[in-house]
Structures are given as C-alpha cells and as structure tokens.
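Quick start: what a row looks like.
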Amino acid sequence: MKGSIHHGSGGSWERIVGKVKVIDAHTLEFADGTRMTLDMVAPELGQQGKIDGKLYPAGKEAAEFLRQRIGDRPVTLFHRDGHVLPYLGDENLEHTMVANGWALADHSSLHAAEIIARENKRGLWRGQFVAPKRWRKGERLPGEQEPKEVEKKPNDNPAVVLGDWDSIDRHVAMASLFQPEHGVRKREAVVHFEKAGDRLTGYAVAEDLPDRKNGRTDFRTVTFADGRLAFEFDISFSKKQGPLIVESGQAENKGSVRVEARLTEGRLAGTWRMFNANGAEVFRGEWEATRAKAAEKK
C-alpha cells in the first residue's frame, strides 16, 4: 500500500495481520513462524534495572507488559525498508510502550510520550537503567550480571533438517515455486539438505521440469537457526508468462525465490516469495515439507 499523501514517493508499505507471540519487548512472532523486530528502543530480555538499590528483571517486565497489552488480539505490522511499525487496532504500540516507560523515544513524534513516562516514573523510569542501545554494547549497571546463555533446543541444531524432504508449494497469487507460470495450482518436489564444512547446502528435484538437468534446482543459500529454515535460489521466468515488467522488456528475465519455514513436530511449514531482477516481489505462496518416505524407511 502507498504511504501518506505527502510522502507517497517513499515507496509502498507491506501489511501483515495476525495473532502473535511476544518474544521480547521489541520482537513479535506470527503463527507461521515469521518473526519481526519492531522499530522500538526497548530492553533486551536479559536486561536488568535497579529500584531502591535492588536489581529487577526490566527486560522481562517490559516483554510482559507488551504481552498483556496485546493479549489474544491480532496485531497489524506495517513494514518497509527495514522499518516495522506495530498497531493494535488503531493503537500505535510503540507509542504505548514509550508512554508507559518500557521503551525510549527515538523520534521527535515520541518525545512527549517519553516526557510523560519520566515525570510519572513509569516502567524503566521508576529507577536506574542503562539505555538499551548501550546495554547491547556491553554497558551494565553496578552489580548487574551477564544474562545466562539460553540452552539450545533440539530445533537449533541444523542436523534436524539434513536429508530428504517431500515438499509441496501452493500459489496464492499466479505462480508456483518451481514453475513460475500462471495457472499452476501446486507443485511437489523432493528437497535435500546437507552440510558442506560448516555451512548448509541444498537443492530440490522436480521430475517434471524437462528444461533442467534431472529437474534439479540448486539453492544459493541455506540457513537454519531457532527452528527456522530459510533458503534462496535463482530462476528465469517463462518468456510469455512471467511478470508483466519482464514480458514488456522493462526488467531482465531473471529472478529469485526465498523460502522461509518453521520446524514444528517434524514438519516444515511457511511461505515462498518470488522476486524479479529489480528486487520487487511478484508472486508468493505457501510451502510445506515432511520427511521423505524413502528416508523414513532407512
């Protein structure tokens, strides 16, 4: 969608709506595993503050305030060029966090809200604290201990995704993952992941792609962390059924696809997004994968 009438030339904003899980005071996660970092100067989960000389878990209290504020209601995120703005209905959550003392103003539009929080000794302003940006660089309050490392869960180990997966992608616009042509409802493939030294690699094999050797598509990048898988690969569009900008010769007949999915109980589920050579998103859809039947028998 376009921005304001006075700043419309700055590009368009993308909107995401849904119920979320509060990870910390500036990070939300949607049901499909999409995790978004908000434009909010809020404390990290392990950060502490001090009231009357006693330390307290400031980061956890800030996250709990946001969690209670949202409750079970859907959140709307507007994002563009790395900026993420959160709304609860028509309530700007960043303004709410600043006005209640659980985040700091980083824009002139929020200065008044921070003044109100300071004068009323709300949230962090009840006592002493290190500004979140300085805390991330290592500055601490006297007596504040370093946060304990979070124990890694099985889903943090890349080994859980190695091997073969039976994948299905469905389009919600006008294309599919391995055959970017209009009218294709879904496509099945076998996706394989392996380790090459200290990094992950992968590829997909779809037998009904005669223009590629063995129907194989090699992935350009593969990452897995915190139970979330992401990979990318390059594509060329159908000469007659690609995006209009390609058909008209305004952009190269090249593009890329990015898949993002979350591992839950042995199943990968998420989304795929297709981009043209200029980096503009042209198609998107759903993606899921389960362990290949051949792999289960081994």
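That is the whole record. The CA atoms of residues 7 and 57 lie 40 Å apart. Residues 155-297 form a domain with the Lipocalin fold (CATH 2.40.128.120).
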